[in-house]
Model the fold of this input.
Amino acid sequence: FWNYDWGDSEIRWTWNSFTFGFGTQNPWLGSAYLNPMLGSNNAPGYIKFDIGLRETQVVLPFINLNIGSIEGRIWLGQLQESEYFDNDDSNNKRMLTAMSVSYKPSFIPGLTLGLNRLYITYWRNENFKYLFRLLSLKHSNALASSGNDEDQKVSLFIQWHFPQVGFKLFGELGRDDFSSNENTNPFHTAIYTIGIEQIIPITSTVKSQLILEWNNFEMSQDFQF
Done:
């Protein structure tokens, strides 16, 4: 067996705060160092096109007040089925539409708040609507055999950095779809990450990094039973 791919490659064009990219570079999403929920470089990249804003200061007009900075991307990617999965060519492609936004308030130095969400659907023209949709506030299942459902995944993350002492606190809460059982268990299909990072100086030029990260990706008990 042999394979060739483009690795973490992309072509990017930037104009002022706007950026446009095409390629296979893996998006690393959220604040986790070791085990991100929705995007990392654990698997090979997929072909995608993205548009968005680089980190940009937000200044309120008339009063000239800087309230912080925002950054965001939306992208459209194509997932390919393994050649060894089945012989049905009609289900070889999936559409991945994703969004990632973050905000750093100027009045709380070092704090970052963010949201990641993605949909995995069948590759059909009517599913391009998910590219600009924030959330689906309905119960949605993983891709069904009928091909009518979307698989929605959402996470909220926080990161608080204290550069004076080299300390960082981070966490993330994710949901897989929205359950039809919301009134009984708010953590149905929920996962979470919490962690800290500490920079420890060894000499004036050498530093070490201590990372403690706890990931809970297990099913809730009511989900299992």
Remarks:
- The longest helix spans residues 221-224.
- The mean pLDDT is 87.
